[in-house]
């Protein structure tokens, strides 16, 4: 064999993914790529995401045609150097497919990831835990308004290779009990505190997104001992403005046609909002108690179209590391809310990125978090 | 969220609504079964295909009522109970049996509200099995949703999957009008992910199970699955289809149908009910009237022939719409070109 | 049997109201101002009133195409009924039901019914509601000798017994189903039918208020006490045709005249109560006068009331659609 052949396989975005659709190739056959260049768009049941090349080489084959649904781990393309012959590639593909079984990829993860329900007072909180518990302080991921653990689909699996990572659905969200209490960030912070205790964690590196950022700040305020560091991604609680077209639209829209434009506020690259993602949120909103819960949260946290609670003072008093990550094109909360903060706080702004950097800049966000909590 | 069969999804919807609201009761022939038997076994059947199994144990004989085999009296009783404070779910077993109790549905339950000047509420659900493909022959295989759709005052639901069935049945039970909920008997073992929590899917809002540019397929109940399969095959040949599952035939989401036809200009309707005056003719008339200018090809209907449902498998297969028949119809409308005037 | 003065007064007033209502419709219908068709209850007043005297608004009744009497006996407003029969917007059903569909569910009146045999299954359901909601109510199905042969009725007798429902099945046997005699159309006897379903059977002269009141009381008590359904067979005569315009050529000459002369429930009631001094003739006269003016006012109001509007056409098909 004269050169390297790199198989490109259907990636696993998030823990629940078992199959994905090759939505489109980003490059034609014959094009040279570097590691990290986008090779293709992969559509999953949650989101369409760019798949970055794991290696350098020439895209020699597009094994999967556009539109094909394939299991995780299935061969979708071949990277190889120019001197690799076509017959070698054919033989490689033949050999790969003969040995591929779609259960493989799933099996590798199943022993480290678990979804379970934890009783927290009267609430049942759905928790998704991954990584090794022996690796030190856990990382706790708190999603935002209307979100769920799947918001961390590109975060949790990446961090889990070196950390114990816990994502969970807030009350009123995902698969947790649909009771939101008073709907304030402080109220949710109390639940998070109880969850941390129920999970027997001495403390956690807390990562909060959007409303989850405000919850993380409330937690740092009320129970600073439980919080080892704070990573705030496009957090609420630092300013007054919020895009109420998103909040109200998210609550009111009940059809794909009306919800899709609302969800597009979340991202800079609008094509990321897949049909399945929209359908998933419509299905979530149909559950008993969801819409009334979201209304309670919205009126408690954003009465009169403004954020009700300012938590900037927490940034000054909290004595442990804080970092803030924000997309420059955020259409829901403005990155200018991160201006004028104490110098010790690191603020990273991602260009060409909307309200969900953990999806749009997954690799960079994951690197920021893992370096920050080392 | 867990994988549930169509049967389990319906059972769970009933169970959750009976827990939520003590006024929800169940009645029908052998919805539990075993009463008066010599063995003393209770809940012997739980419905002729086991759909209501276990509900007797949880809710007792006051709320899970086995009836004599007298459709007129118990369907009428369900209507009367609905008008006087209960929220009955009556099971008609096979929808073909409506012949024995149509008066109670058509002239009583459906009419109360209008004929009493808006003073009545009749929160009644009638569940029944429909559809061919089971070698059940002419008296146990009909797809009679057009019959009910024809009657103002009734709502008619034809769910296409376990997820749809649970959400639509809970919606039906909470609805204050009489609802006919028709379950395709071939689908009871179909499985998919269904949330464990209660949820509702609103009536009159079609679901697009595929979105494409070339041909719109409107399909009802189980036919949605066949249409999806046909659409997936056609996609490989470069014909992309929108598949519309109207979910309810009354109310009917005419807006979505017209929007999609406006986009594709080509329409195939798949309906397993008898072909005269069925939903396919209804949708065809709607589109002919409201979207004539958008049409680039004649409307095609994939429907059975105008015969009773036959017994022998070979005949029943010939009778039923199939993936192949849908594919052929879509190909023909996709290939159709309007002749230029000379 | 003791009957309170209050019940006697109310019952007389109800019977007089039904009589005047129907006699007035007989006259007004002939003018052509009333749309559709009407079935009059004249001659049968004591039946509906004698039964309903034992019921409250919690109890439920279902009626027939000949439903005006049952409606009045159950307390439905006379002006609203008259307006309904005239097809007016102010009618109890806003002009959408007409004579055969007068209902008021708030009074437990589940509707007159255009379908022969339509009511008994509904009454099984209403009785089931009373039983499961534990409101101590009973449900009463009025139906004629014609409907007694309907499968839906016979099924209901069975179902009510199987489920031990607090239901009373009142067969108003006026001897005719439309233009066909019960002696021809009804096989066996109502009594044997009740026995066949294991149901207690009561029977009375339906032109005698006191007989109906007493017998209905027993049947209703039986049902209300949780012992299951009962049948009450009321023997009656109707004084007008099946519907207005029916020349009744199927009835022997003098049959109706004899009934009117000998079995007028109002005349006999007055005779009975005044003979034994339960009520004074003058009190009854006052009721007669009051009812007359009530009917006059109802007719005048109905004629003056607005017709339904185009917007009403699509209203109230569904609660939501």
TrEMBL record, chain C:
Organism: Acetobacter sicerae
InterPro entries per the UniProt record, alphabetical: DH_E1 (IPR001017), PDH_E1_Alpha_Subunit (IPR050642), THDP-binding (IPR029061)
Domain of life: Bacteria
One Pfam family recorded for the sequence: E1_dh
Cofactors that this protein relies on: thiamine diphosphate
Xref: CDD domains: TPP_E1_PDC_ADC_BCADC (cd02000)
Protein name as catalogued: Thiamine pyrophosphate-dependent dehydrogenase E1 component subunit alpha
Function (record text): The pyruvate dehydrogenase complex catalyzes the overall conversion of pyruvate to acetyl-CoA and CO(2). It contains multiple copies of three enzymatic components: pyruvate dehydrogenase (E1), dihydrolipoamide acetyltransferase (E2) and lipoamide dehydrogenase (E3).
Catalytic activity line of the entry: N(6)-[(R)-lipoyl]-L-lysyl-[protein] + pyruvate + H(+) = N(6)-[(R)-S(8)-acetyldihydrolipoyl]-L-lysyl-[protein] + CO2
Alphabetized UniProt keyword annotations: Oxidoreductase, Thiamine pyrophosphate
Annotated Dehydrogenase E1 component domain residues: 14-309
């Amino acid at each position: 064999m004269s050169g390297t052949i790199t198989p490109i396989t259907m990636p696993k975005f998030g823990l629940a993914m078992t199959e994905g659709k090759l939505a489109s190739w980003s490059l034609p056959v014959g094009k040279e790529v570097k590691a990290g260049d986008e090779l293709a768009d992969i559509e999953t049941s949650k989101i369409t995401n760019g798949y970055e090349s794991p290696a350098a080489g020439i895209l020699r084959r597009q094994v999967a045609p556009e539109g094909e649904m394939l299991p995780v781990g299935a061969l979708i393309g071949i990277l190889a150097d120019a001197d690799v012959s076509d017959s070698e590639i054919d033989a490689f593909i033949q050999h790969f497919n003969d040995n591929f079984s779609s259960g493989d990829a799933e099996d590798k993860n199943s022993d480290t990831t678990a979804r379970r329900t934890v009783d927290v007072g009267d609430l049942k909180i759905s928790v998704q835990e991954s990584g090794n518990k022996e690796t030190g302080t856990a990382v706790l991921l708190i999603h935002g308004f209307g979100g769920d653990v799947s918001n961390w689909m590109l975060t949790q699996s990446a961090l889990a290779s070196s950390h114990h990572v816990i994502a969970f659905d807030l009350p009123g969200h995902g698969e947790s009990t649909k009771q939101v209490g008073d709907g304030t960030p402080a109220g949710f912070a109390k639940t998070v505190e109880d969850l941390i205790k129920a999970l027997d964690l001495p403390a956690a590196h807390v990562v909060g997104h959007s409303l989850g950022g405000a919850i993380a700040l409330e937690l740092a305020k009320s129970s600073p001992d439980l919080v080892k560091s704070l990573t705030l991604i496009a957090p609420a609680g630092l300013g007054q403005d919020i895009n109420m077209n998103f909040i109200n639209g998210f609550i009111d829209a009940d059809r794909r046609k009306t919800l899709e434009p609302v969800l597009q506020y979340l991202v800079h690259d609008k094509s990321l909002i897949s049909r399945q993602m929209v359908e998933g949120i419509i299905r979530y909103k149909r559950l008993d108690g969801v819409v009334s819960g979201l209304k309670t949260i919205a009126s408690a946290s954003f009465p009169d179209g403004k954020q009700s609670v300012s938590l900037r003072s927490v940034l000054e008093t909290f004595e442990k590391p804080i970092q803030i990550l924000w997309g420059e094109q955020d259409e829901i909360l403005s990155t200018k809310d991160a201006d004028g903060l104490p110098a010790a706080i690191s603020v990273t702004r991602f260009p060409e990125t909307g309200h969900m950097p953990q999806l749009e800049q997954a690799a960079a966000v994951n690197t920021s978090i893992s370096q920050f909590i080392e | 969220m867990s994988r549930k069969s169509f049967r389990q999804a319906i059972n769970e919807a009933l169970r959750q609504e009976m827990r939520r609201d003590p006024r929800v009761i169940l009645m029908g022939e052998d919805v539990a079964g075993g009463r008066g038997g010599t063995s003393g076994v209770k809940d012997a059947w739980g419905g002729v295909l086991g759909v209501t199994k276990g509900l007797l144990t949880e809710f007792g004989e006051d709320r899970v009522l086995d009836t004599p085999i007298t459709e007129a009296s118990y369907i009428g009783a369900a209507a009367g109970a609905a008008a006087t404070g209960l929220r009955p779910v009556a099971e008609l077993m096979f929808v073909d049996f409506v012949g024995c109790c149509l008066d109670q549905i058509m002239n009583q339950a459906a009419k109360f509200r209008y004929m009493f000047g808006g003073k009545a509420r009749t929160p009644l659900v009638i569940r029944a099995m429909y559809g061919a493909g089971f070698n059940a022959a002419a008296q146990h295989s009909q797809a009679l949703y057009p019959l009910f759709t024809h009657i103002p005052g009734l709502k008619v639901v034809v769910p296409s999957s376990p997820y749809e069935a649970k959400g639509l049945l809970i919606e039906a039970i909470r609805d204050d009008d009489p609802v006919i909920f028709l379950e395709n008997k071939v689908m009871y073992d179909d499985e998919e992910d269904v949330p464990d929590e209660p949820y509702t899917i609103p009536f009159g809002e079609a679901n697009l199970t595929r979105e494409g540019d070339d041909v719109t397929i409107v399909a009802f109940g189980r036919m949605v699955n066949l249409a999806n399969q046909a659409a997936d095959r056609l996609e490989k040949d470069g014909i992309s289809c929108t598949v519309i599952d109207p979910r309810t035939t009354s109310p009917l989401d005419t807006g979505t149908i017209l929007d999609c036809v406006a986009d594709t200009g080509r329409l195939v309707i798949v309906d397993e009910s008898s072909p005269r005056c069925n939903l396919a003719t209804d949708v065809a008339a709607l589109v002919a009237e409201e979207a004539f200018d958008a049409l680039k090809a004649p409307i095609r209907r994939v429907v059975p022939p105008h015969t009773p449902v036959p017994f022998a498998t070979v005949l029943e297969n010939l009778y039923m719409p199939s993936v192949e028949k849908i594919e052929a119809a879509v190909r023909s409308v996709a290939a159709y070109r309007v002749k230029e005037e000379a | 049997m003791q009957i309170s003065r209050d019940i006697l007064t109310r019952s007389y007033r109800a019977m007089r109201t039904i009589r005047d209502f129907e006699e007035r419709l007989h006259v007004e219908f002939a003018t052509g101002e009333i749309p559709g068709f009407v079935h009059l209850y004249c001659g049968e007043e004591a039946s509906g009133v004698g039964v309903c005297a034992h019921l409250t608004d919690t109890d439920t009744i279902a009626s027939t195409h000949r439903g005006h009497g049952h409606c009045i006996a159950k307390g439905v407003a006379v002006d609203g009924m008259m307006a309904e029969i005239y097809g007016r917007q102010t009618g109890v059903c806003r002009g959408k039901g007409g004579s055969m569909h007068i209902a008021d569910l708030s009074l437990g009146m589940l509707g007159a019914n255009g379908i022969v045999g339509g009511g008994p299954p509904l009454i099984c359901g209403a009785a089931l509601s009373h039983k499961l909601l534990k409101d101590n109510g009973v449900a009463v199905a009025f139906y004629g000798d014609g409907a007694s042969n309907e499968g839906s009725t016979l099924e209901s007798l069975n179902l009510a017994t199987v489920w031990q429902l607090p239901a009373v099945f009142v067969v108003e046997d006026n001897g005719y189903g439309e233009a066909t005699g019960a002696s021809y159309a009804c096989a066996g006897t109502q009594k044997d039918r009740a026995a066949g379903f294991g149901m207690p059977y009561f029977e009375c002269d339906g032109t005698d208020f006191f007989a109906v009141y007493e017998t209905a009381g027993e049947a209703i008590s039986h049902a209300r006490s949780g012992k299951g359904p009962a049948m009450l067979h009321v023997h009656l005569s109707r004084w007008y045709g099946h519907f207005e315009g029916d020349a009744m050529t199927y009835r022997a000459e003098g049959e109706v005249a004899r009934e009117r002369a000998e079995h007028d429930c109002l005349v006999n009631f007055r005779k009975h109560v005044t003979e034994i001094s339960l009520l004074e003739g003058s009190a009854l006269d006052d009721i007669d006068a009051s009812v007359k003016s009530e009917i006059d006012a109802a007719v005048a109001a109905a004629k003056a009331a607005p017709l339904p509007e185009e917007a009403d056409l699509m209203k109230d098909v569904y609660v939501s659609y």
